[in-house]
Amino acid sequence: MFSLELKILICFVWALIVFLVVALIIGPERKALWFKRREKYSFFNRRGFISEILFYGYPNTKEGIFLTTGMALAIAVVAYILYLL
Q1: What pTM value is reported for the model?
Q2: In 3D, which of 80, 31, 34 has the Cα closest to residue 55?
Q3: Per residue in 50-62, pLDDT tens?
Q4: 41-66: b or e for each residue (b if 16 or more CB lie within 10 Å)?
Q5: 1, 57, 80, 84: which could form a disulfide with 37 (CB 3.0–4.6 Å)?
């Protein structure tokens, strides 16, 4: 029904939506507690405004691991449904 390119685009957009919604729900305080971010920034690895909102870092606590797993499962479910179509 959908072409392969459209399926990939839908998965990519869905992943961005999941990252953005979860980032807005948990807020920057809990995101800072649950995930470890890079401490040294250079010119080559600085991020813009939207990238800073979407960037989580490495899971540092069990809450971060559960959240990362949940986001991956939400994206995988949509990818699997698209695979079946």
Answers
A1: 0.82
A2: 31
A3: 777 888 889 999 9
A4: eeeeeeeeeeeeeeebeebeeeebee
A5: 57
